[in-house]
Design brief:
Blueprint: E1 2-4, E2 15-20, E3 26-29, E4 32-39, E5 42-49, E6 53-67, E7 74-90, E8 93-94, E9 106-107, E10 110-112, H1 113-123, H2 163-175
Antiparallel strand pairs: 1-10, 2-5, 3-4, 4-6, 5-6, 6-7, 7-8, 9-10
Amino acid sequence: MKISIKDITSLADQSKKFTGVCDIQEFSYLGSEFSINHVEPFDVVLSMIGSGKLHITFSTEAEVSGACDRCLAPVSFVVPVSVDETVEVSEGQVVSDEEEGPYSFVDGEDIDVDELILNEILVNFPAKILCQDDCKGICPVCGKNRNTESCDCDDTVLDPRMAQFLDVFNSFKEVK
């Protein structure tokens, strides 16, 4: 969803409210694919502060689905989205910040609400996505989901720096 700022920037201390809609359905993050199932309805408020600053605010929640980081089972979770941005405006257009450069959510005279939502989702994204707190993951040997099936695989991971000692012990076993 894009909102034109042309009308609101012409008058100082003016506010406008818009009904927000999220058009993003899928996105990639850290090599994984995610989909946005639902975004709670929200109102976008654009307010001019004096004649040189535009304040953008809205809050909502997004239901995102993806794969569990341990067992790859599908999982859904809610990410809070709260936008509170102030940008400088000159002659009806947003002026790039000298320190940060151009804003990713600005397209000429338009504010891209979808880009603001995606930025907030990525900032508030959980560090680990798990189907349950005690997810056992996938067996590294046979590939079974340990939450649904058990296996008798030996998944002992040896330190490669100790491989020389293992060779010595194995050679003594052969001598007997």
